[in-house]
Design a protein that fits this description.
- The chain is of the alpha+beta class.
- The chain contains two helices and six strands, in the order E-H-E-E-E-E-E-H.
- Strands 1, 2, 3 and 4 form a four-stranded antiparallel beta sheet that branches. It has a two-stranded antiparallel sheet with strand order 5-6.
- The chain is globular.
- The two termini are 13 Å apart.
- The structure holds iron/sulfur cluster (SF4) (2 copies).
- One iron/sulfur cluster binds next to loops.
Length: 114
């Protein structure tokens, strides 16, 4: 049985490295669902793909504790938090299963207990 984490007191998978101005990759279906969301979306030039490509990502911001987080994240990492677009969140966000490997790695990276 997976550990009983509380996503609304975590948010580790919504946080990213301090220097990243884009986080969550958006595919065509995501862009369609989020078209009217008003959320800032950036075009990111990826140099480590072959050939190099430009991809859409949700922008980032700082949470109240200075963690860089997805722009759709509300609250603070490791405290009360939520996703403002949970019902239409991007496909990559749906890959994070609470208690799964990606979840535990994200928590570990943010210094939360695993
Ligand atoms: S899926 Fe895991 S890392 Fe993401 S908010 Fe939930 S408990 Fe935290
Ligand atoms: S879209 Fe929602 S679930 Fe996905 S990273 Fe942003 S805040 Fe987290």
């Amino acid at each position: 049985m997976p550990p009983p984490y509380d996503c609304q007191a975590c948010g580790a998978c919504c946080a990213t490295a301090p220097e990243r101005n884009g986080y969550v990759r958006l595919y065509d279906g995501d862009l369609e669902r989020l078209r009217d969301s008003g959320l800032p979306i950036i075009e990111s030039a990826e140099q480590d793909t072959d050939p190099p490509e430009t991809i859409a990502k949700l922008a980032t911001k700082l949470d109240p504790h200075g963690h860089r987080v997805c722009v759709a994240f509300e609250g603070g990492v490791g405290g009360a938090c939520t996703c403002l677009i949970y019902d239409r969140r991007p496909s990559v966000c749906r890959m994070f299963e609470m208690g799964g490997l990606l979840c535990r790695l994200a928590r570990q990276e943010r210094g939360l207990p695993v």
